[in-house]
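Entry 14. Structure prediction run on the chain below.
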Amino acid sequence: LLIRRTRLLISTTLLRKSSQLISRRGSNAAGLETPKPQPLPPPAMAAYLSMGEAHRRIGGYLDRVADAISSSDGTTLASLLAVSSAPASTPLSDALAAFLDFPRIAADRFPNLSDLFVPLLRTIHSHSLQRYADAYSSFEKAANAFLQEFRNWESPWAMEAMHTVALEIRLLAEKADRELATSGKNPDKLQAAGSFLMKVFGALAVKGPKRIGALYVTCQLFKIYFRLGTVNLCRSVIRSIETARNFDFEDFPVKDKVTYMYYTGRLEVFNENFLVADQKLTYALVHCNSQSKSNMRRILKFLIPVKLSLGVLPKRTLLEKYNLLEYADVVTSLKRGDLRLLRQALDRHEDQFLKSGVYLVLEKLELQVYQRLVKKIYIIQRQKEPAKAHQIKLDVVVKTLKWLEIDMDVDEVECIMACLIYKNLIKGYFAHKSKVLVLSKQDPFPKLNGKPV
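Output returned:
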């Protein structure tokens, strides 16, 4: 009986508390706040990496590098030296993070190669932590040690690995400079990478089978010099390639020759040597892998302005195929003799053309546009008065330009016509007193035929 009474008392008490809670919630339903969500359980911790496992992974990596060197396996060695192309978190980077005394492993196990292995491991560790300036500094030490070993090897079995080192030091330098610039420090790593690659070039620019790798390093130097804006430094390397008896250009790999012709062609564009630029860029375009649309587009971005300067107009289908429609209005202005359209196109895409370095080249197309404009006037006059078609009054040219919303007086137009005659874009002479341009009756508008204005 006592047990029953106790159970009844407990049940009554629980029922009363439940009723009060329900009543309270019902009366305040409109004003209750949404219950705060319970905090989620902490995420599962990453799998613990034991010191022994970390030691094993680091030792395994070093063993693979040492085996590749001892067996002259250049392909495997090249893949082991690649740092930028590897993901941020790898079994090796995890091991380096867990076992921070990794330099001791390299020094103890491979004392003869410690100058290469210790900074190489530090590079991989710093790169995984996105400390790119530290990664570059370590890799430069490893690269110098590798270059010293490379010089001692008589055969070029490690050429692929040397190319990987050349590529990696440029990519790491670019990342390091971005990091330094963001933190307000002097971005000087890319310049240092250029100095190192000059040492590599010197090691390759010798008689013997190793010279076959010189052009790849040259192209890496070009990329550095163009990024730094020190293209004048390319000249010494170009002279070494094109005048030295050690090199036969046709012996180099096709991909290296295409890259070399692309950059040297760009240099000739900057120097306004359009005939030479046309030859080099055309070579690059013809020998470029047609499946690489992005590389074809890079070449055409500079080849098209060169061709325009030589009087060769591309088809619109070509511009559409390679997404180069910024040149469409420029081509149309040349066909029509529409100076206003040319200037509008240059204004619209000014930033793009300036960044590419072709703005000044395109701006000088104005003379060709003036020639087409005078030719249009000549054709109209020949239809109306065939006998006087070769006599063009400068007032007519002034009115035509005014219709194009370009204000010029007669003296300015006379100066432009004189320039066209001097540049052999028009054959004729001036009747200065009557302000008339007298055109030659035979071929008054000579074609460029691939010759620059």
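The first strand starts at residue 391 and ends at 393.
Filed with the rest of this week's runs.
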